[in-house]
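Support case: protoporphyrin IX containing FE complex. Customer-provided input:
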Amino acid sequence: MDFTHLIKLVKLWAKGSKLPGPPCPSFYGHSRLFSSENITDFLSKSHEKYGSIVRLWLGPTQLLVSIKDPAVIKEMLVKAEDKLPSTGRAFRLAFGRSSLFASSFEKVQKRRESLAVQMNGKLLERANAIPSKVVDCVMERIDSIMAKGVVDCRSFSQHTAFSMLGSTLFGDAFLAWSNAAVYEELLMKIAKEACYWASYSIPPFWKRGFWRYKCLCTRLRCLTQDIIQQCRQNHKFSQLNQNSCNGATKIGRETATDAVFSSGGVMEDDLFLAELDGRLNKNEPCGNTMGVMFHGCLTTAGLIGNILTRLVMHPEIQDKIYSEIMMVRKRSTKSEVQNIYEMNFLLATVYESARHLPAGPLLQRCSQGQDLNLKTGITVPAGSILVVPIQLVQMDGSSWGNDASEFNPHRFLSKADGGSYLEQMVPIAGATREVVDCTDGPLVLNDPNVNDSFLPFGSGKRACIGQKFAILGIATLFASLVQHYEIRLQPGSEDDPKPTMNNCVLQLLPSPKIVFVKRNC
Ligand code: HEM
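Agent response - structure generated as follows:
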């Protein structure tokens, strides 16, 4: 250890010991006391005893600081720009260099901004967060599932999220791709092992399992290149057709700068993919594309599964969503997708599901270079691990009321006059600011982000850039699903599912078995 390292360490000890927290139980600190399964319980007890900021030693050189106060969390998430080195390592190990999921903010800033413009601009302007072709594809799958029998929420959600993200990134070619099932399986195998292999600060070259894992990652890269190739061919072909219909001879990007989306709403150009990976690394291409597929599929599948589980456990909520869909669609002349902005109860159910069960137990940050001075007067020393126990924050009675632990979409609705805040955020041609008259009277959707304790997509400098896309896409999907099918719990599958970490995300397990019953509409 060199001299500067030693000075840093002494500062960490000196400043860290001024923070409130339990005494260090051993040389290894608290690292052996909590695992990912009981981390929230452990932090809950520590916050009860020591207040809203708690420090824990994870060993002689690692200080963890957990923050539970919403105002301090907000400040911290804006000020602490870096992610933990292990997060960046997990993505780098699996997918190669990435300019989107690296731990240093400096490395991701530019790509984040340009991708956010794509995700939140063109994609949402068209109010076509997911194309009808994906919904058709999911519906077809339900028909084949019904022919076979039952399915569980988890596997249905996984396939669905995969179709959603795949067709958004790769266009129509993805839905017809013969390797889609293999791709999905590979991605899930990688998800099972990613955190384990990233927990080694030096890759364990001596372990056979590690090389097996690297093989899976290489196969995923080859398949990603294959689908990108097909996506480009598809695009060129459709351009050729379009040009020959127009009597033009020129093909390629010059004619397609505005054609990121086809008429069906799918991004059929390779501009989006080029935007994702740019000229990142010729030896390890597609790092960001694979990273987005990985993160997007796992988190979206988690939320879809979570909503499905709620709908089968609370049939009264499903009935209410169905009434809202029918009411909105009956009285509206707009296209199906635009109607989503008027389905306030459905959107509130999506928010409530995300509040009730976030993708993971912790948001994490660090500030490698300098100390973090918070307005409360507290200084978090450079190099500390900063965490937000989201489950605790999103279930806290002082932010969410006495019924914080209940599943209640109404907490995001109010009876005041006005339109949905989503409609105001994403202006749609011809959209009026109507409110939906559900059985309880007109309901207005509140912006969930006004509550600092709503954090399923993080917040601040490293917040999720897929939030609006995920919410609108998932709502679009459920609007079709619930309109055409009643989703019921398979008799005998009444176990009480509990939040459990599985494939890098929190899921309600055991996953209930469900049946789709076609409605007469
Ligand atoms: C239900 C679906 C999703 C959930 C719950 C979710 C959740 C999250 C969370 C909690 C973070 C960390 C935020 C923070 O630390 O403050 C994150 C980061 C991120 N998300 Fe998502 N996400 C979802 C879907 C997506 C999708 C569909 C995309 C893109 C297609 C996406 C792109 C990203 C990116 C690029 C980051 C990394 C930001 C950074 O490190 O700077 N997410 N997401």
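The pocket of protoporphyrin IX containing FE is lined by residues 77, 83, 100-101, 108, 112, 292, 295-296, 299-300, 303, 359, 363, 456-460, 462-466, 469-470 (CB under 6 Å).

Case will auto-close in a few days if no follow-up is received.
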